[in-house]
Amino acid sequence: MNLLREKLAKYDAPQRAKAAGIYPYFREIQSDQDTEVLISGKKVLMFGSNSYLGLTNHPKVKEAAMEAIRKYGTGCAGSRFLNGTLDIHVQLEERLAKFVGKEDAISFSTGFQVNEGVISCITGREDYLIWDELNHASIIEGIRLSFSNKLKYKHNDMESLEKQLRKCEPDKVKLIVTDGVFSMEGDVAHVAEIVRLAKQYNANIMVDEAHGIGVLGNHGRGTCDHFGVSKDVDLIMGTFSKSFASLGGFIAADKDTINYLRHHSRTYIFSASCTPASVAAANASLDIMLNEPEHMENLWKLTHYALDGFRQMGCEIGHTSTPIIPLFIRDNDLTFLIVKELFEEGIFVNPVVSPAVASQDTLIRFSLMATHTQAQLDYALEAIRKIFKKHNLIP
Question: What is the mean pLDDT of the chain?
């Protein structure tokens, strides 16, 4: 008897969802990642992407990636630690450090690897990791791998954070880790207040800017820049798979911190380095952020329009103030059903259900790109209005 297979075969939630016709995952896209995509031969509007600036199809980004392949090939065939460091890796890292106001930076092959590899190694057994309960899974994974003391605080609750800080021994390292913009709920961390508490309790701060860069701050520098506290935040993390229209991630900090991570972070040392095309695409996207502010301006125009539309409709959208808009359904099966019905109306959105969130907090994640048109947004709002009204989710 194969005990492992017998154990794993008991997991049948996907099969049951497929049998009910409401399985929403791994939908095969047959076109480029744009505001309209092709799935099973059907054109649908994409409101489930993280490409906030809509740069995945920008001609400068695509040409930069292709030129990098022509010059460097398709891969580096090794880790950054050994044979996989290209000059363009170093050039991008220098630019990213300057962009977010830090001395140095290193890039990883994915954003997930940044959080997993940095958080797991940066503090010791007697130190403390203090984290928001709604942080991204990559942060939680890094915390799980760490040998440090782990203290969780209630989401965006500064009283809860201070309560946890009081538990820490004064002479030990205390690292507060938070998302800048929370990836499912769309709300923004109280970074300025976190800085105040960190100074009071002699703590350090790491902010995950995966969903903040390209969206908030001067030329999209992120949440820390938005609140004017970049110098007070010790580590700033970013990913290339959102506004940078690529794949990879980075961590920026002072030179001593980056030197330590460069020689201790296992996901950096033992992973193949970021591909030439990915590095070049991220670099070109950074150029666009700095030189074409109209992308971010249009993103916010659409965001304000959408937020007003959902509020007027009577949708429950929580505390979001960003292009990530949660539409709370608070029922797993109904969330799946509504995603299916919206797809039939030509709208692609993402379900967020338990265990990713508590079963009473299930939602549909509606996200915007700078390249959406108001006509596309109006169509989506009307389709959501019709289906939500059908299910008695709005008046």
Answer: 97
Q: Which of 174, 226, 242, 372 is catalytic?
A: 242
Collapse the DSSP code of 45 into the 3-class scheme (helix H, G, I; strand E, B; otherwise coil) and give the result. strand
Cite the beta strand spans of 174-257 per DSSP E: 174-179, 204-208, 235-239, 249-253
87 contacts: CB under 8 Å, gap ≥ 6: none
Give the number of other CB atoms < 10 A from CB of residue 370: 25
What φ, ψ does residue 77 adopt, rounded to 5°? 55, 35
From 120, 146, 148, 183, active-site residue: 183
Rounded to a whole number of angstroms, the CA Rg of the chain reads 21
Q: How many CB atoms lie within 10 A of CB 229?
A: 20
Q: Is 62 a catalytic residue?
A: no
Could you tell me which residues come within 8 angstroms of residue 41 by beta carbon, excluding any fewer than 6 positions away? 30
Asked whether 218 and 251 are in contact (CB, 8 A), the reply is: no
Is residue 355 very low, low, confident or very high in pLDDT (cuts 50, 70, 90)?
confident
Which pLDDT score is estimated for 358?
Answer: 81
Residues 16-40: tens digit of each pLDDT: 999 999 999 999 999 999 999 999 9
Active site residue 219: no
What is the average pLDDT across 259-278?
98
The pTM of the whole model exceeds 0.85: yes
What tokens appear for 92 in the block?
């991008």
The angle formed by the CA atoms of residues 31, 34 and 37, to the nearest 5 degrees, is 45
The answer to whether residue 89 is catalytic is no
Instruction: Please identify which of the residues 211, 226, 295, 372 carries the catalytic annotation.
Output: 211
> What percent of the chain has pLDDT above 90?
97
- Which tokens sit at 89? 């890796």
